[in-house]
Amino acid sequence: MDAETxxxxxxxxxxxxxxxxxxLRDSVERMRIERDKLVQEAVAAxxxxxxxxxxxxxxxxxxxxxxxxxxxQKQNSSLHNLNSEQSEI
Length: 89
Prior knowledge:
Strand content: under 5%
Radius of gyration: 38 Å
Shape: rod-shaped
C-alpha cells in the first residue's frame, strides 16, 4: 500500500499552487498585452480621425473662401455694370 506522507501532500500542494500562480501570471500578462494593443489601436484611430477632420475643415474653409471671392467678384461686376448704366443716363 502506497500511503502519501504529510510532507508529500504538502509538497504536491505547493507545486500545484506554484503552477496555478504561474498560469494566473501568464493570463494577466496576456490580458495586459491585449489591453495595451486595444488602447494603441484606439489612439491610432483617434489620431486618424482628427487628421481627417482637419483635412475636411481645411477643404471647407478653402471652399468657403473661394465662394466668398466669387460672390465678391459678382458683386463688383454688378456694381460696375450698375455704375456704367448710371453714367450712360
